[in-house]
Amino acid sequence: MTIMTERRTRPDAAAVLAGGTLLVVTALWVSNGGLQDLTGGGALSATGRLLGLWASNLLLIQVLLMARIPLVERAFGQDRLARWHRWTGFSSFWLMVAHIVLITLGYAATARTNPLQQLWQMIWNFPGMLLAAAGFLALCMVVVTSIRAARRRLRYESWHLLHLYAYLGAFLALPHQLWSGSDFVGSPWATAYWWGLWGAAVAAVIAYRLIVPLLRNRRHRLVVDRVVPEANGITSVYFNGNNLNKLPVRAGQFFHWRFLDGPGWTRANPFSLSAAPAGQIRITVKDSGDGSARVATLKRGTRVLVEGPFGKLTGENYTGGPVVLLACGIGITPLLALLGELPYGPGEATLLYRVRDEASTAFRHELDRFAAERGVRVVYLTGPRARSRSWLPAGRTDELTALAPDIRAARVFICGPEAWATEAQAAVRAAGVPASRVHTELFSW
């Protein structure tokens, strides 16, 4: 599974923007009498109202972060957006829990009733609260399955499908907020802000998760051309289509793929291009689950739906000079595409390719051709995983500067499993490469 991380790009501006929206929400709460309620007898309810507003604000920002807005994707990359999405999601959820608890305790204190009885009365009698309760349960399911330990026990396809319930949870809360939340309609400014934020979230999801992919697939009509085994459990798929030279994708990027070959076509899987796009598209997939295993069984002519492209592991800002690429396992795929597209000169490119054994080595003939025709220096790092924290195979203690002598002056691209890529990135930084010239893509979700 592919998620991309890139060097820091305007993160401070993004944090300021998110914090600014929370300040706006707080100011609207104050203007609607929040401070007076806080210092009066309704401190619990007033605090609960504010936390609920923060929760709703972060929930909508979370939706916007993963709405696939091209400008946002290009500015920050999917990995950073995924981290922010996870942070805002968990923060929003716990603020929502605190909101429910404080509002319930506040109302129960006023009515002098049992809090559990008060909660039931609110759910059953307040306008929109039944829908809000259903939405909260949907969000609970999303949060539980987003915990790392739970994710490890789920197939990516199942996790992705369950994660879509976050949209349901967010939008089921809207009637409750409009009917019962005076802070949403208490002033023209509040009404404009909340309707504007809701409208932006809905419009972004419809435009970039539905309309743009539908139009792109209608225009290019990708179909499977052929399926080629590459190594043990590794398969390449070549695709044809209409006007593929106008498909806005670069080497190093990835799509979410749906293969229309039977049951399960609704579940998307992220796969990187493994060759520079030039009239034909190629991906290479390792058999690591149901979604990736079915790739080897695809038939010629199978229709394909794609969503994307995504990712910033590209040569967008590279104009030449030394370049070093570090790949582990199936992480070779986007780096192989980059080798075909980057404008390096003879002898300027070095590929360090980490594989478990010879049978797991993919694209050896293609790499030999790059070495012969473009002077790429290919170093195979073959062997089982080291027990210690190392990006090298067991028994190897090579200095990175010995494997890639010009690395200090190079642009560096890293792709592979998260733990390995983290160690490789640390080694690159220790070798003296500035963070601005290190680009990393992690195979995780």
From TrEMBL:
InterPro entries: FAD-bd_FR_type, Fe3_Rdtase_TM_dom, FNR_nucleotide-bd, MRET, Riboflavin_synthase-like_b-brl
Keyword terms: 2Fe-2S, FAD, Flavoprotein, Iron, Iron-sulfur, Membrane, Metal-binding, Oxidoreductase, Transmembrane, Transmembrane helix
Location of the protein in the cell: Membrane
UniProt signal peptide: none
Membrane-crossing residue ranges in chain numbering: 12-31, 51-71, 92-109, 129-150, 162-180, 192-211
One Pfam family this sequence matches: Ferric_reduct
SUPFAM superfamilies in the cross-refs: Ferredoxin reductase-like, C-terminal NADP-linked domain (SSF52343), Riboflavin synthase domain-like (SSF63380)
Keyword Transcription regulation: no
The protein's name: Ferric reductase-like transmembrane domain-containing protein
Source taxonomy: Bacteria, Bacillati, Actinomycetota, Actinomycetes, Micromonosporales
